[in-house]
Design brief:
The chain is mainly beta and about 1250 residues long. It has 7 domains: about 1-135, Jelly Rolls, CATH 2.60.120; about 140-205 and about 220-320, Jelly Rolls (Sandwich), CATH 2.60.120; about 330-500, Jelly Rolls (Sandwich); about 525-575, no CATH class; about 585-640 and about 645-745, Jelly Rolls, CATH 2.60.120.1000; about 750-915, Jelly Rolls, CATH 2.60.120; about 950-970 and about 995-1085 and about 1095-1135, Jelly Rolls. Helices cover about 5% and strands about 40% of the residues. The chain contains 11 helices and 86 strands. The strands form 15 sheets. Strands 71, 73, 74, 75, 76, 77, 78, 80, 82, 83, 84, 85 and 86 form a 13-stranded antiparallel beta sheet that branches. InterPro entries: ConA-like_dom_sf (IPR013320), EGF (IPR000742), FA58C (IPR000421), Fibrinogen-like_C (IPR036056), Fibrinogen_a/b/g_C_dom (IPR002181), Galactose-bd-like_sf (IPR008979), Laminin_G (IPR001791), Neurexin-related_CASP (IPR050372). It comes from Salarias fasciatus. It is a single-pass type I membrane protein. Its main location: membrane. It is found in: Membrane.
């Protein structure tokens, strides 16, 4: 036993053995601080499996936590860490009880050192210690730089086994060198190379191994490990099985697929240490232990054959069979407050991950201070002398000094010249020459930083402190004795770790998932997720939805989308086309040839083969097909005297391959059943020749075809096609394989309803040790309940609704419970769907609720991070059956895997599969008067009463009119409707009496004058909307509600509407009897006002869109349903995008204009109402006419729509206060008054 100090001779380390009571009953240091240590020398290297601690007997002195260090030589200590992160161990709570800790991974070392972290605050450090383990035997060889190595020639019997395994341990101070070469026949070889502290597996072919001028660069197969030049033992295993190889470095394994040339490759020679014909010229310099080939120790008894060369073994160069270590004492600066103060000395080597930090501060002989620091991973010297401040930007040897590698620094000053050399062995020398004399070499040097209370001329904290390691410090050209520094015999220091380098590579192995790029500083790592398709602290969660169905319910329309079928799982995103134009949402995956293709068999071949390439990878395709409810692919064959499948008894002439991988042979055709060897006509019994089951098998000279859909998902997609009967004289054929189409998402609507607080579903244990993401949707009327819970011995994970406005994500991985909360400003128990997404990884935990800001809780920097669960996963409740959830949970996914709630709910009391009622959440997606209707799985937007079409009633139906085009919509008489109520859909004849109308349309034209809209009854009442040249191309509305009086005229203040830009107009009126006409050319005008008829005869050229009459859309009916709607069309009516956003002027500003009445006086009861300062309502009392006109001059077009409705009878009323004006452009004569007439028996309406 040894120690840093002792309180007295009776507190010496020799009394520190477990359960010992003599002396003072244990060890206590002179001072209780964190710089004390107790060391045990086991005499030889031992496999240590456990440690046990006690406090000092009969006292109040014990440790509550401590660190463990191991070493082979008593120097260069290495801290033992649990789970690669936790460095401290729990200690005692009293002086006498024994606390034993079993090491997760045994440690092999001769020396053990325990460092106190915390102790009883009412006492001091007191300790008794015991270690447990077993003997460790090894055979060691030491290889020196300069070509030392071993050569082993393996006999054929030794190497021909089902697998080959090479294992060894090594340690070195050099970061590069050839460790092992396995050479096979014809010179092909595998190499293990150390390069910048990483172990590379490299393949060299025969030519590459001989380094011929034509040989290319070696192929890197794998890279593992980091900081392997730390002079500690590292374990390497190379295991080859058939065509793959497993490379293990310490505890991390990577599977490698070997090139095809190694499928029959056998190891003939092993070269250890020597760079034999290697692409890398550096030989290994260090020690190798327990080199085994298929369990055979290749080093054992080699000492006896040093002077006796054998055919199987050969020793080359400087080789010894022991491992003598050169002592290299390092010092670690773990925190920003760390510093080391010394008489004049210079740093020799350093390593760090930080891009910035102060290496050294020193005084100048002429007065002034110099700072040597890292800036953006480059070395920079700043000198301050009086009022002079110089920066030498040329001192930048090496471009990346924060790469974790050892970098050498040499600072010299001669004759007023400062020379700084960085990595001089690599040629990185930089010189800086100031314009005035500068000399160094006196006073104090502060390494890493300055004391916290220092602010004098000798040391000022202008830069962040250095975090990293230094070694080989020199004082008067002699190495500094850092052990003397540790014993306070030389210099001064604070918060240092002496005789060890505590650097960690947090990016090896990388915690960044899905190809995220890892970078790090001394304390943390960061993942760059750009271009990966994932986000989060570790690039764990996908930024894409899992299906087209999910995109649709986010309000998207048809287009190309990336989908990630397994979310955070290993399958990457794929680009597909989502067709959302119909009731079903289709995912479309193209391949390299979806066109109808003529068959041309190659000369001399009786078959024509074609292969189809899909842009998605194999696992992406299969996952997309698996999660879809239905998939199909068109397969068609056009033939003339070219047979297809032959008879049921005969061998098929043609076949196709489909399904996973290269596919399986299929001998049925599109539209038939798998294995039937038939086509669709054979299944339906309508083939051209009843004796055959395919049309093409009739072998006729006329062209015919066999086409249909393949719907058997296990046989999709079609991989290749083989056509056999294509070479006979007169044979002609063509084929088409359509894109793969899939609809439905089996996971998106998978739901369960929990109707009791005591009901729940249970699933196997959730495994999310390092990273876990959970997502689901819920709706409820309850104010609390547990959504999910999984317990371990101590660890747990839980998501719950804690109140009507709060969701909590809580877990414990051994550091104590941690909670992440999200508070909503609106109630969550509103029976609407809400989305929850929780993620926990080694860096942080996050919780997202709907579109609220994400809540984040960082994980402890040096804490546990493995989530260890062992009970069942409970959904909708807990194991205690308390605080259960009442409501619906849908689309529950854990790490990208969907739990089948519906199947489990079918066999679970108190839980029902499925959950209806989606319109309350998704109904807002139905736009433009579309109605949301419920489905068993999802919802549907009914656009029958909307002028729009599309999945969300968002697609405008536009038409481009020419002067010869007209559309007429005719209503039946009321008495005729009652006589034949089944003639047309009943919806057309509902609401026989109208008390008003709402008319809207959009138009784009350069024509003036022009009649845009005309609504009339059989009794010559009408409503007209026109562009009138009177008033500079203004918009004008005319109402005539009494056939014996002239029309009332309302003119807009907006001018120049015939400017080719898009304008939107809305007209709303109460209590009127009207019909609707939309025309753009001359039409039947028997019942039309003759003046308007003359205007209509001029025709209309332009675009009409968004024409709406109450709830009827006549243009939509004319374009989409001309056969089932009472419309008549004359002239060319062309559906167009002229009313769409793409055709609108993108630079036009959007303005809202108002039509006003051109009346000289208004009745005292008339008023103008502004609703939101945008919508004027001009109310004409007594006449019961209310007209509201909105004119929007917009840069975005709106698709055309024509809406239709029937008229009603109305009472005679008088319109007062409206002045009639004659138009200068149209021969309309306006009288001074108007009377209303009754029209109780309307006959016909047209447009």
């Amino acid at each position: 036993f040894r120690s840093s100090s002792e309180l007295s001779s009776s507190h010496a380390p020799g009394f520190a053995k477990l359960n010992r009571r003599d002396g003072a009953g244990g060890w206590s240091p002179l001072v209780s601080d964190r710089y004390q240590w107790l060391e045990v020398d086991l005499g030889e290297r031992t496999k240590i499996t456990a440690v046990a601690t006690q406090g000092r007997y009969g006292s109040s002195d014990w440790l509550s936590s401590y660190l463990l260090m191991f070493s082979d030589s008593g120097h260069n200590w290495r801290q033992y860490r649990q789970e690669d992160s936790i460095g401290f161990f729990p200690g005692n709570s009293n002086a006498d009880s024994v606390v034993q800790y079993k090491l997760q991974q045994p440690a092999v070392a001769r020396f053990l050192r325990l460092l106190p972290l915390d102790w009883n605050p009412s006492g001091r450090i007191g300790l008794r210690l015991e270690t447990y383990g077993c003997p460790y035997t090894s055979d060691v060889v030491s290889l020196r730089r300069g070509g030392g190595g071993l050569v082993y020639r393996l006999s054929p019997g030794t190497r021909r086994t089902s697998k080959e395994v090479v294992s060894l341990k090594f340690k070195t101070q050099r970061n590069s060198g050839t460790l092992l070469q396995a050479e096979g026949h014809e010179g092909s070889s595998l190499h293990l190379e150390l390069q910048r502290g990483k172990l590379l597996l490299v393949k060299l072919s025969c030519c590459e191994a001989k380094l011929t001028p034509s040989s290319g660069p070696p192929r890197r197969l794998a890279s593992l490990g980091s900081l392997l030049d730390d002079q500690h033992w590292h374990h390497v295993v190379l295991e080859r099985r058939s065509t793959h190889l497993n490379l293990t470095v310490d505890k991390h394994t990577e599977r490698v697929q070997l090139p095809a040339e190694f499928s029959q490759w056998d190891v003939e020679q092993l070269f250890v240490g020597e760079a034999h014909r290697s692409h890398f010229q550096n030989s290994f310099h260090g020690c190798i232990e327990n080199l085994l080939y298929n369990g055979q120790n290749l080093i054992e008894n080699d000492y006896l054959t040093v002077k006796k060369k054998t055919k199987k073994k050969q020793i080359v160069g400087n080789v010894t069979f022991s491992c003598g270590e050169s002592v290299s004492v390092a010092v670690t600066f773990p925190g920003p407050q760390s510093f080391l103060q010394m008489p004049w000395a210079t740093p020799t080597t350093f390593r760090t991950w930080n891009k910035a930090g102060l290496l050294a501060t020193f005084s100048l002989q002429q007065g002034g201070v110099a700072w040597l620091h890292l800036s953006d991973s480059r070395l920079q010297l700043l000198i301050h002398q009086g009022d002079k401040e110089l920066i030498f930007p040329g001192v930048f040897a090496g471009s990346d000094l924060s790469d974790g590698q050892w970098h050498s620094v040499d600072l010299t000053s001669k004759r007023g010249h400062i020379t700084i050399s960085v990595d001089e062995e690599e040629g990185g020398v930089a010189h800086a020459t100031p314009s005035f004399p500068i000399s160094t070499g006196e006073g104090q040097v502060f390494f890493g930083g300055c004391p916290a209370d220092a602010d004098g001329p000798e040391c000022r904290n202008l830069f962040d402190g250095f975090q990293g390691c230094m070694r080989l410090l020199t004082l008067d050209d002699r190495p500094v004795d850092l052990i003397a520094v540790q014993q306070r015999l030389l210099g001064n220091y604070s918060q240092l770790q002496i005789d060890m380098c505590g650097i960690m590579d947090r990016c090896s192995p990388s915690r960044c998932e899905h190809g995220g790029r890892c970078s790090q500083s001394w304390t943390v790592f960061h993942c760059n997720c750009s271009d990966s398709g994932y986000d989060g602290a570790t690039c764990h969660s996908s930024v894409y939805e899992q299906s087209c169905e999910a995109y649709k319910h986010n309000g998207n329309t048809s287009g190309h989308f990336y989908i990630d079928v397994d979310g955070s799982g290993p399958i990457g995103p794929q680009l597909v086309y989502c067709n959302m134009t119909g009731n079903d949402t289709w995912m479309v995956i193209q391949h390299n040839n979806t066109e109808l293709t003529r068959v041309r068999a190659p000369p001399g071949s009786s078959q024509h083969s074609v292969h189809f390439q899909y842009p998605s990878e194999e696992e992406q395709l299969q996952a997309a097909i698996s999660q879809s409810e239905h998939c199909e692919q068109e397969l068609s064959y056009h033939c003339r005297k070219s047979r297809l499948l032959n008879t049921l008894e005969g061998s098929p002439f043609s076949w196709w391959l489909g399904g996973p991988g290269p596919g399986r042979v299929q001998t049925y055709w599109g539209g038939a059943q798998p294995g039937s060897q038939q086509c669709a006509c054979g299944l339906q019994g309508d083939c051209v020749d009843p004796e055959h089951y395919c049309n093409c098998d009739a072998d006729r000279m006329e062209w015919t075809e066999d086409s249909g859909l393949l719907t058997h998902k296990p046989s999709l997609p079609v991989r290749s096609l083989v056509l056999g009967d294509v070479q006979r004289p007169g044979s002609e054929a063509a084929y088409r394989v359509g894109p793969l189409l899939c609809r439905g998402d089996r996971n998106f609507w998978n739901a369960a309803f929990f109707d009791k607080e005591t009901s729940y579903l249970h699933f196997p244990t959730f495994h999310g040790e390092l990273s876990a993401d959970i997502s689901f949707l819920f709706k409820t009327t309850a104010s609390f309940g547990v959504f999910l819970e999984n317990l371990g011995i101590k660890d747990f994970i839980r998501i719950e609704l804690s109140s009507s406005t709060q969701v909590i994500f809580s877990f414990d991985v051994g550091n104590g419970p941690l909670e992440v909360r999200v508070e909503s400003s609106v109630p969550l128990n509103d029976n609407r769907w809400h989305r929850v997404r929780a993620e926990r990884n080694v860096k942080e935990a996050t919780l997202r609720l709907d579109d609220l800001p994400v809540a984040t809780q960082e994980a402890p920097a040096d804490g546990h991070f493995h989530l260890q669960l062992n009970s069942q996963l409970f959904i909708g409740g807990t194991a205690s059956r308390q605080k259960g959830f009442r409501g619906c949970i849908r689309s529950l996914q854990l790490n990208g895997v969907t739990l089948d709630l519906e199947e489990r709910a079918k066999i679970t009391p108190g839980v029902r599969p499925g959950c209806p009622g989606h319109c309350s959440s998704y109904g807002s997606l139905c736009q433009n008067q579309g109605r949301c209707t419920e489905r068993e799985n999802g919802f549907h937007c009914d656009c029958s009463l909307s002028a729009f079409s599309g999945v969300f009633c968002q697609t405008e139906v536009s038409a481009s009119f020419k002067s010869g085009t007209s559309v007429r919509y005719t209503f039946k008489e009321v008495y005729e409707v009652s006589r034949n109520s089944s003639a047309l859909p009943s919806s057309i004849y509902s609401d026989a009496t109208l008390r008003g109308e709402n008319v809207s349309l959009s138009f784009r034209t350069s024509q003036s004058p022009a009649l845009l809209l005309y609504v009339s009854s059989y009794y010559r009442e009408y409503l007209a909307l026109l562009i009138n040249k009177h008033g500079e191309d203004g918009l004008e509305v005319r109402y005539k509600l009494d056939s014996s009086r002239e029309a009332d005229v309302l003119r807009s203040s907006v001018k120049s509407v015939a400017n080719g830009q898009l304008h939107t107009v809305s007209v709303s009126r109460l209590t009127d009897s009207v019909s609707l006409q939309i025309l753009s050319s001359s039409s039947d005008s028997d019942d039309m006002d003759p003046d308007l008829a003359r205007l209509g005869s001029q025709g209309f050229a332009g675009c009409l869109s968004v024409v709406h009459f109450n709830t009827i859309s006549p243009l939509k009916a004319a374009l989409l349903h001309p056969d089932s709607s009472p419309v008549s069309i004359s002239g060319p009516l062309v559906q167009s995008s002229c009313g769409s956003a793409a055709s609108a002027n993108p630079y036009a500003a959007e303005n809202t204009h108002h039509l006003i009445s051109h009346s000289s006086t208004l009745d005292s009861a008339a008023s103008i109402r502004l609703n939101g300062n945008t919508t004027p309502n001009v109310v004409f009392p007594a006449g019961v006419i209310a007209v509201v006109i909105f004119v929007m001059v917009t840069g975005m077009a709106v698709a055309a729509r024509f809406l239709y409705r029937r008229k009603e009878t109305y009472r005679n009323q008088e319109v007062k206060g409206v002045k009639r004006e004659d138009s200068q452009d149209f021969p309309f004569n306006s009288r001074a008054d108007s009377q209303n007439v009754s029209g109780e028996n309307p006959k016909e309406f047209f447009m």
